[in-house]
Amino acid sequence: MKAKEKDAKRNLSVPELQAELRTTREKHFRLRFKHKAMPVANPMEIHHLRKHIARLETWIREKQLTGKQ
After folding, report:
1. pLDDT digits 0-9 by tens, 8-58
2. Residue 18: inside a domain, yes or no?
3. Domain span holding position 32
4. Neighbours of 17 (CB within 10 A)
5. Residue 5, in any domain of the structure
6. What is the DSSP string of 2-65?
7. Cβ pair 17, 9 in contact under 8 A
8. Domain annotation covers residue 44
9. What pTM did the predictor assign?
10. What's the pLDDT score for residue 68?
């Protein structure tokens, strides 16, 4: 993820970040499930999705603590 994309997503509101988190978790689940049945072409995508989920959770928690909704 590029720096501009990170800045743009970081400035989203909490409900928008939660929606993004939900879709990313679903994509991660489907990719893991597919990888168990048959190896995917790019297994590093699973790693990147996991990192993106952690990043989104951090931004959500940061906004909750600072009171920004």
Report:
1. 888 899 999 999 999 999 999 999 999 999 999 999 999 999 999 999 999
2. yes
3. 13-66
4. 20
5. no
6. -HHHHHHHHTS-HHHHHHHHHHHHHHHHHHHHHHHHS--S-THHHHHHHHHHHHHHHHHHHHHH
7. yes
8. yes
9. 0.87
10. 67
